[in-house]
Design a protein that fits this description.
By secondary structure, this protein is of the alpha/beta class. Helices cover 23% and strands 38% of the residues. The chain has 3 helices and 8 strands, in the order βββαββαβαββ. Strands 1, 2, 3, 6, 7 and 8 form a 6-stranded mixed β-sheet that branches. Strand 6, helix 3 and strand 7 form a beta-alpha-beta unit. The longest helix has 17 residues.
Length: 149
């Protein structure tokens, strides 16, 4: 699984012009599921993201996690994270998981975050969404359950 994690002061998701989810301070997490991903990948990323020390402490050092700050996570399914742009000008998505599998593992990620005690808001799977965010920092990280960046 792949994730783009952005520290935000607020974030929301609109579908068909209507706000379906919103958070205040926390993390916007775009989640992409690959063909070979498993529930282990979902649990790994959930644990890693919840415990990432990317919020400032009293000395302005990045020593606090979203769990430490009492923040929330807005998780948005994003199959395009598996877009391969190495050949030609049109991305290939052959490594992205099929929709049924992607939905199951996206939901496993969301549940794993909840199980760790962090509030989670979500987008709507397979819908066209408008994602609004106010970056905080900005702090943006890319994670992959199978390799380091």
């Amino acid at each position: 699984m792949r994730a783009v994690v952005q520290r935000v002061s607020k974030a929301s998701v609109d579908v068909a012009g209507r706000c379906v989810s919103a958070i205040e301070a926390g993390l916007l997490v775009l989640i992409g599921v690959g063909r070979t991903d498993t529930e282990e990948d979902a649990r790994y990323l959930a644990d890693k993201i919840v415990h990432l020390r990317i919020f400032p402490d009293e000395n302005d050092k990045l020593n606090r996690s979203v769990m430490d700050t009492g923040g929330a996570i807005l998780a948005v399914s994003q199959f395009t994270l598996w877009g391969d742009c190495r050949k030609g000008r049109r991305p290939s998505f052959v490594e992205a998981a099929p929709p049924e599998m992607a939905r199951r593992l996206y939901e496993a990620f969301v549940q794993a975050v909840r199980d760790l005690g962090v509030p989670v808001a979500t987008g709507i799977f397979q819908e066209t969404m408008a994602v609004h965010l106010t970056n905080d920092g900005p702090v943006t990280l890319m994670l992959d359950s199978r390799k380091a960046f």
